[in-house]
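A favour between colleagues. Tell me how you read the following sequence-structure pair.

===
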Amino acid sequence: MQKTVRDWVPRFLLDNPLITSLLLIAVAVCIRLWMHHEKSTTLSKRLRKLRKKIYSNWQNNPTINVIRIQKEYTVFLPEQNNAEVYVKLMSQYPTKDSPKPSVFNRENPFLSPFPEGNFIDELSPSHSLIYNSNSLLRCHCLVITKEFQPQNSPLNERDFEAALMTMKAIRGFIFFNSAADAGSSQRHKHLQVVPYSSFRYGHIPLDSFVDMVPAERRVGQVFTIPQFRFKHAFYAFPQPLIPKLTSANLGERTDEVTGAYRAIMERLGNADLKIAHNLIVSSKWIFAVLRRQETARGRIKINAIAFTGSYVIRDDKDHELINPEDPFDILLDVTFPLKS
C-alpha cells in the first residue's frame, strides 16, 4: 500500500494542530534567520576579499605616485584636553599634472580602460574602485562612477552605498571635495576613502573635538563644535554605521547617511547643493562645511582632509602660516563666516 503524508506525520501532531502550527512557525523563523546569516556572510566575505586585494596590490604599484613625508609636526592644544592637530610637510607637491604612466587616460583618468594595477574592483553596477594615483595616505582609494557624472552633482544613495562598502572593507572614513573651490582636482564624480591606520594612533584629530560635545547635544541631531568658527554642521548617528554593516541593513544605513547629508546641507542653506562644500563621513558622524575658495593664505591648498585636523604643506614657509595657538584659524580664509 502506498503511504500518504499523514502516514509520515507523528500521531501527536495530527491530534494537536496548535503544536503543529507552532513548529511550522519555528521552522519558518529558522529558515529566515539562516537566509539573513547567509546574506550577511556573503557581504562580509566579499569585503574581506576586497580588503586583502586593496592592501596587497598597493605595495610597489607602478600606477601610484607615493608622496613622501619629509617632516611631521604635532600641534598640542592644552585648552582642548590636549587634543592634537597634525601638520605634514611633503617632500614633493602633487598636482593634477604630476607624472603618471602613459597608459592613463589623460583627459579623464577615471574612465576605463585603466592601467594594470590601478583598477581594484567593481563595487556595484554604477561604481568602481581605483587607487588614488597621487597618494599621500596608504591605501587611498577612489570610489568613482562608471559613467561620467560631474563632481558637483548631488551625492545620491548609489554613491554612498559604494563608499560605505569600501569604508567597511578598509576600516576607514569617507571624504568628498565637491568642486575646485573645495579642493577637487578632477571633474568626474568621485568620493575618497582612506583607512584610519594611515593616521597616527589610528584615528583622525577631529574625532577628539566631536567627543567633547555631550552625547545629549549631538546624537541623532545636527550640531556644531566651538573650535570651528565658520559655517559648518555635523550629524551624529544614533548607532555606528560600520561595525554591524551587512547585506540586510546596507540599504537602511545608506538611506541614513543620505538623509543626514541632505539635512545638514539644508541646515547650512545649501539644499540645492550649488555652493562648493567638503564632506567627511565617519562611522559615528557626518560633517559638512561650505567653501568659497580653495587656497588659504594665498598659497596653502585646502581640501576635506584639512578639516580632519591634518594639514598637508609644501615647505617651512607654509608651516609658518599655521598659528600654533589656533591652527584652525587658517580655515577662515576658505570658508564662510558663521553669520553669513
